[in-house]
Prior knowledge:
Low-confidence stretches: none
Mean pLDDT: 88
Largest sheet: 4 strands, mixed
Amino acid sequence: MSSHRGLLHHLIIRVTDARRSAAFYSPVFGYLGYELADSAFDDDYGYQDWKRWDHDTPHEISICQAERSLSDKGHFRGAVGHHDHLAFCAESREDVDRFYAEILVPLEREGLTTVEDPPCDCPEYAEGYYATFFLDPDGLKYEFVLNPNHIKKRRARLPS
Protein backbone atom coordinates (compact mmCIF):
# COMPACT_ATOMS: atom_id res chain seq x y z
CA MET A 1 0.00 0.00 0.00
CA SER A 2 1.50 3.34 -1.00
CA SER A 3 1.45 6.29 1.32
CA HIS A 4 0.16 9.64 0.13
CA ARG A 5 1.21 11.39 3.29
CA GLY A 6 2.96 14.64 2.46
CA LEU A 7 2.12 14.65 -1.24
CA LEU A 8 0.44 17.67 -2.76
CA HIS A 9 -3.33 17.44 -2.34
CA HIS A 10 -4.39 20.66 -4.01
CA LEU A 11 -3.05 24.02 -5.07
CA ILE A 12 -4.97 27.22 -5.77
CA ILE A 13 -3.44 29.73 -8.16
CA ARG A 14 -4.91 33.23 -8.04
CA VAL A 15 -5.13 35.00 -11.38
CA THR A 16 -6.22 38.46 -12.50
CA ASP A 17 -8.75 37.24 -15.06
CA ALA A 18 -9.85 33.59 -14.80
CA ARG A 19 -11.42 33.50 -18.26
CA ARG A 20 -8.23 34.83 -19.91
CA SER A 21 -6.03 32.55 -17.82
CA ALA A 22 -8.20 29.53 -18.68
CA ALA A 23 -7.09 29.95 -22.31
CA PHE A 24 -3.50 29.45 -21.06
CA TYR A 25 -4.00 26.80 -18.37
CA SER A 26 -6.42 24.56 -20.32
CA PRO A 27 -3.88 23.38 -22.92
CA VAL A 28 -1.05 23.30 -20.36
CA PHE A 29 -2.91 21.20 -17.78
CA GLY A 30 -4.52 19.05 -20.48
CA TYR A 31 -1.09 18.16 -21.84
CA LEU A 32 0.14 17.34 -18.33
CA GLY A 33 -2.65 14.78 -17.84
CA TYR A 34 -5.12 16.81 -15.80
CA GLU A 35 -8.84 16.72 -16.55
CA LEU A 36 -11.16 19.68 -16.17
CA ALA A 37 -13.38 18.74 -13.22
CA ASP A 38 -15.37 21.94 -12.80
CA SER A 39 -15.44 25.55 -13.92
CA ALA A 40 -17.59 28.65 -13.81
CA PHE A 41 -17.19 32.20 -15.05
CA ASP A 42 -19.32 35.25 -14.41
CA ASP A 43 -18.69 38.99 -14.31
CA ASP A 44 -17.23 38.99 -10.79
CA TYR A 45 -15.61 35.61 -10.33
CA GLY A 46 -14.31 32.64 -12.25
CA TYR A 47 -12.46 29.40 -11.61
CA GLN A 48 -11.34 26.11 -13.12
CA ASP A 49 -10.59 22.92 -11.15
CA TRP A 50 -8.17 20.51 -12.79
CA LYS A 51 -7.62 16.99 -11.39
CA ARG A 52 -5.38 13.99 -11.94
CA TRP A 53 -7.33 10.80 -11.30
CA ASP A 54 -4.58 8.34 -12.21
CA HIS A 55 -2.52 8.40 -9.02
CA ASP A 56 -5.05 7.05 -6.51
CA THR A 57 -4.87 10.28 -4.52
CA PRO A 58 -6.56 13.64 -4.72
CA HIS A 59 -4.37 15.87 -6.81
CA GLU A 60 -5.98 19.12 -7.89
CA ILE A 61 -4.85 22.47 -9.22
CA SER A 62 -7.35 25.29 -9.40
CA ILE A 63 -7.14 28.68 -10.99
CA CYS A 64 -9.31 31.23 -9.22
CA GLN A 65 -10.05 34.84 -9.93
CA ALA A 66 -8.29 37.20 -7.50
CA GLU A 67 -10.45 39.49 -5.43
CA ARG A 68 -11.12 42.56 -7.58
CA SER A 69 -9.84 44.90 -4.85
CA LEU A 70 -6.49 43.05 -4.91
CA SER A 71 -6.11 42.21 -8.59
CA ASP A 72 -4.29 45.46 -9.36
CA LYS A 73 -1.48 44.40 -7.02
CA GLY A 74 -0.18 41.94 -9.59
CA HIS A 75 2.42 39.25 -9.11
CA PHE A 76 5.76 40.14 -7.58
CA ARG A 77 8.17 37.25 -8.00
CA GLY A 78 10.16 36.74 -4.83
CA ALA A 79 7.64 38.43 -2.53
CA VAL A 80 6.38 36.69 0.58
CA GLY A 81 3.35 34.53 -0.19
CA HIS A 82 4.06 34.31 -3.90
CA HIS A 83 5.60 31.28 -5.49
CA ASP A 84 8.93 31.72 -7.22
CA HIS A 85 8.02 29.11 -9.81
CA LEU A 86 6.42 25.70 -10.14
CA ALA A 87 8.08 22.86 -12.01
CA PHE A 88 6.26 19.91 -13.58
CA CYS A 89 7.99 16.61 -14.39
CA ALA A 90 8.48 15.54 -17.99
CA GLU A 91 8.88 11.94 -19.14
CA SER A 92 11.75 12.58 -21.55
CA ARG A 93 13.64 15.24 -23.48
CA GLU A 94 11.24 14.59 -26.36
CA ASP A 95 8.32 15.27 -24.02
CA VAL A 96 9.80 18.68 -23.14
CA ASP A 97 10.34 19.42 -26.84
CA ARG A 98 6.80 18.33 -27.74
CA PHE A 99 5.26 20.41 -24.94
CA TYR A 100 7.18 23.44 -26.15
CA ALA A 101 6.21 22.95 -29.82
CA GLU A 102 2.58 21.88 -29.35
CA ILE A 103 1.57 24.00 -26.34
CA LEU A 104 3.92 26.89 -25.65
CA VAL A 105 4.65 28.09 -29.18
CA PRO A 106 0.93 28.47 -30.06
CA LEU A 107 0.18 30.09 -26.67
CA GLU A 108 3.01 32.55 -27.19
CA ARG A 109 1.67 33.42 -30.68
CA GLU A 110 -1.70 34.17 -29.04
CA GLY A 111 -0.05 36.40 -26.42
CA LEU A 112 -0.99 34.08 -23.55
CA THR A 113 2.53 33.14 -22.44
CA THR A 114 6.08 34.35 -22.53
CA VAL A 115 8.67 31.65 -23.04
CA GLU A 116 11.72 32.63 -21.02
CA ASP A 117 13.79 29.68 -22.23
CA PRO A 118 12.91 27.21 -24.97
CA PRO A 119 13.98 23.63 -24.23
CA CYS A 120 17.62 23.62 -23.16
CA ASP A 121 20.21 21.77 -21.14
CA CYS A 122 20.72 23.31 -17.70
CA PRO A 123 24.02 21.88 -16.41
CA GLU A 124 24.07 24.59 -13.73
CA TYR A 125 21.25 22.64 -12.00
CA ALA A 126 22.40 19.07 -12.64
CA GLU A 127 23.80 16.77 -15.28
CA GLY A 128 21.05 15.81 -17.74
CA TYR A 129 18.68 18.56 -16.50
CA TYR A 130 16.59 19.61 -19.51
CA ALA A 131 13.77 22.13 -19.26
CA THR A 132 11.70 24.92 -20.71
CA PHE A 133 10.67 27.94 -18.62
CA PHE A 134 7.56 30.03 -19.27
CA LEU A 135 5.16 32.55 -17.72
CA ASP A 136 1.38 32.59 -17.43
CA PRO A 137 -0.61 35.71 -18.42
CA ASP A 138 0.00 37.22 -14.96
CA GLY A 139 3.74 36.56 -14.99
CA LEU A 140 3.70 33.45 -12.77
CA LYS A 141 6.69 31.31 -13.71
CA TYR A 142 6.54 27.63 -14.64
CA GLU A 143 8.96 24.97 -15.76
CA PHE A 144 8.56 21.65 -17.57
CA VAL A 145 11.60 19.56 -16.71
CA LEU A 146 13.37 16.25 -17.09
CA ASN A 147 15.79 15.66 -14.22
CA PRO A 148 17.23 12.14 -14.33
CA ASN A 149 19.32 12.82 -11.22
CA HIS A 150 16.36 12.10 -8.95
CA ILE A 151 16.52 8.43 -9.95
CA LYS A 152 20.29 8.30 -9.36
CA LYS A 153 19.95 9.96 -5.95
CA ARG A 154 17.11 7.62 -4.97
CA ARG A 155 19.13 4.54 -5.94
CA ALA A 156 22.10 5.84 -3.93
CA ARG A 157 19.90 6.04 -0.81
CA LEU A 158 18.80 2.40 -1.07
CA PRO A 159 20.80 -0.17 0.93
CA SER A 160 23.00 -2.46 -1.15
